[in-house]
Amino acid sequence: MIEAVLTGAVAGGTCIVFAGLGEIVAERSGVINLGTEGSMLCGALAAYAVGIETGSPWVGVVAGLVAGAVLACVHAVLVLHRGANQIAVGLVVSFLGIGVTALFGQDYVGQGVVPLETWDVPLLSKLPFLGPVLFQHDPLTYVSFLAVPALTWMIWRTRAGLVLRAAGEGPEVLEIYGTSARRVRWVALLTGGALAGVGGAQLATAATLNWSEQMTVGRGYVAVALVIFAGWQPIKLAGGAYLFAGAIALNLQLQARGWELSRYLLEALPYVTVLVVLALLSRRRIHGGPAALEKVFEG
Amino acid sequence: MTVLETTSDVEPEAPVPPGPEADDHHVAPTAAAQVQRHLRTALRWAVVIASTVAIFSAFLLAKGADPASVLESMWKTALGTPDSAGETFIRATPLLLAALAAAVPARAGLFNLGGEGQLLMGAIGAILVANQLDGGAGTWPTLVLMAAGGAALGALWAAIPAVLKVATRTNEAISSLLLNYIAGLVVTWLCFEPWKDPASLGQAYSRELTGPERFPIIWGQRVHAGIFVGLVAALVLWALLRWSTWGFKLRVLGGNPSAARRAGLAVGGLSIAAMVVGGAMAGLGGMIEVAGTEGRLRPELLAGYGFIGFLASWLARHDPLRCIGAAVVLGAIAVGGSGLKITAGLSGGAVNILMAVVLLAVLGWGGRKAEAAR
Amino acid sequence: MSRSIRAAALALGLALVAAGCGGSDTASSSDGGGGAKDDGTFTAGFIYVGPKDDFGYNQAAYEGSLAMKEAVGDVELLQAENVPETAESEQVMQNMIDKGADVIFATSYGHLEFAQNVAEKNPDVIFVHQGGLEGDNQLDNVGTYFGTVYEPVYLAGIAAGATSETGKLGYVYAFPIPQTLANINAFALGAQSVNPKATVTTISTGSWCDPSVQSQAVKTLLDQDVDVITQHQDCTKTIIEATEAAGAYSVGYHADASELAPKGWITGSEWNWGPLYTDIVETVKAGEFAESDYNGDFRVGLQTGDNPFVQSAYGSMVDDETKAKIDEAKQRFVDGGSPFEGPVLDQDGKEVYAEGEQPTYAEVETMDFFVKGVVGKIG
Lengths: 299, 374, 379
Prior knowledge:
CATH topology of the largest domain in chain C: Rossmann fold
Strand order of the largest sheet of chain C: 12-10-9-8-6-7-15
Order of helices and strands of chain B: HHHHHHEEHHHHHHH
Strand content of chain C: 15-25%
CATH architecture of the largest domain in chain C: 3-Layer(aba) Sandwich
Radius of gyration of chain C: 23 Å
CATH superfamily of the largest domain in chain C: Response regulator
Shape of chain C: globular
Number of helices of chain C: 11
Number of domains of chain C: 2
Helix content of chain C: 40-55%
Number of strands of chain B: 2
Largest sheet of chain B: 2 strands, antiparallel
Oligomer: heterotrimer
Radius of gyration of chain B: 22 Å
């Protein structure tokens, strides 16, 4: 059962990992983006629709990436150029994403898409336990495995990462590099939206082969919650996403085994888990977050 | 994380939360200046409305619908007849209380994204009280006790993120958001299990509230006295925030937490109080919805109202009186949405676009003023 | 701050003025037109709880409405999707009446009470509700209608039980509403009629449409050696695709999805609302609703010969012997039998319906237990 729960955790958590990594990039630059939910939906619909129209799931994924970034532009313009409140604008951007995808997604419900096929990694997928858990997924899942260490490295070991963190910590330092925080945040927000779009694309064209209205069912918001839970560290974010999806997988496993547990309790499990861990970890993180972000919350 | 230490408070690009007074100048206004300012406000709203209509129409055209007929139908549905205007007010009432639930914490610099869950908890609290009374009290005592029960449970639900915030610095926006999902599951559980109406013939909802447990209908067939409770709550809160010491302290806290701390304010207690009062408002909203409009607890009760209420609060810049107007505007859009569905055959979700565009226009505008003020 | 008072007062005032102006508008329009009734067009309104193109329950009802228009011809349609099962639906129905609706089809289970409320205020408009029971609130302008969906589900259960190699079937559902429970039980009883040891493992997703959880649910069931999967969800595609990809068998619901599962499609239950909708509208148009059977809890099934639920086509794995068994069971229902004819035992082995006993329609539609052989907990 452990193997099944962990496999489910990876399968269900991948779209959240992408969205969460994107949110880490955005928040590291000092901007929180609750529009992630909307970007995921736009990514999902764009990937699905373009996948159908072109017959190529990979073109679809690129479309999803672009769609997620386009929606993030709205957030960027309002927050970076009009000085609007990040939390409020983010929520509105999600509403916009829900509305736009509801309007234009009508024609694609029930249509068949060419799936992003599962691809077993040679040799590794044959490993006992680890094989099924990690190496029998769709290609985007492997991309997410690579993206986690890659982003960690980028944030801490590259000049781009330094600039990104500088935008979130002390924008005046950026002057030294001859750039402005606004420019960095633009790039960060677009990257964030694009990654959320890829997450949506993975959900629609690899994990579920489906498009339906609001098919993310709040996973974008969960991703934002997990970023704070993870202390803006990609590796912990991935852990959080798998924990969340693992709690869902556990619920399903226990139901299928006929456990006499209240299913409402089991359904609450993922949210309660994240909330409890968030509360337990928060104390240690007083100075963990980007300074500019703290200002958003602390006024 | 401390590679780049910074001590500066000045940060050119950081968005400034537009405080309630962000656009009020502290200069004695002359009559002419006042007129000018009113004109500017009017112009601003005209631009907001025009751009909203234009953008929404563009979306409709892209989808192949006729914007004129869609908008006309929405207008008629939302405000075209006395009955439909009544609907808008009924819809606006829980939105108003959800807006207040966000507005009070926002005054203290807190983000309450948990209005959704607090509304539901209020509905549960009200029915809990009604079940205890079991029709044993008159109309007004029953309603007052139900309101108290709803407000109490809403407050309790809001106290969770507030206490977590103070005790462990857990981000209240995120924790209150997560609590929405849990509250939703509690409602689903109650409807399907312990509170399921034995006379429901299979439907999953609680027993019907009747007689003294319901707000009297005051106008038409659905407009109930509960809408006044919302208006009174907004007035009382406005007065409290405006004139009480408590309101002043909240503003200080919201304006500059470290200054508040230096001034010796009990920041923790104030933060919790702000969230709790907000939660009580949402709880009251949940009570009004079950005792006024719905009459039962249902799984889909008030879905989405908490978020729209949060946005109404931002539309109103967290001023309780302006919240009334914001709730009416967003309520009208929501009610008009059914006209859009029926006439144009568009997905009901499309109304989210209209709501989003209005809010983006207003948020974008408000932000620039704040920026310009610096 | 006084500015904000004025701003709020202005907003409120504007709204009230608008309401007032609008008021006089409608007064005159209703004098003139009185809705569409007077000008000769007959209008039917349909409300759906979800998107009308969800490839499931709502789409089936939507297509039924189009088929009805096709058949009746002289009828205007008003459609509203995503109408929640809350008091908001009353406003939508009232709005349709203001636009001239003569009959309203409230197609979701939870719309019933609101339809009754609006019906009380609009005695001239006919309301028909899909799937509910009127209960104590009997109104002359309200009726309910439904078919016996559990009959084709039972028949599909026979095919599933005969096809399954492991004897383990899986059922993915949303919420434990009576309709779902009856379907699960019928499916289990059908399978057990050909394989007494057959079990049905159930998983609730807690949502009518959460594709990510659906795909996980399928994998979870497959882990339990389940080799036939069916469902009661609004969006069905993910489950069928995931089942097919794993090489397991699918039994469909709502619509024929055999093209999604060319290898594993066994059969399924589909909806065909057109004829029934057409007859209801014709009856209302002729002014004969009050005296008709539709003014009450109208139920059709195999016995009456016009069940709106039909069996989908069979996959190639269903052999002639099984088809014969299915036809036999079908004939039994046509002759007045029921899938739930006793003895029926619940999960704990307690007898619910005694030998030869049959539940009434109302009992089936308020079902609140799992039969023996179903794995899962309702609460």
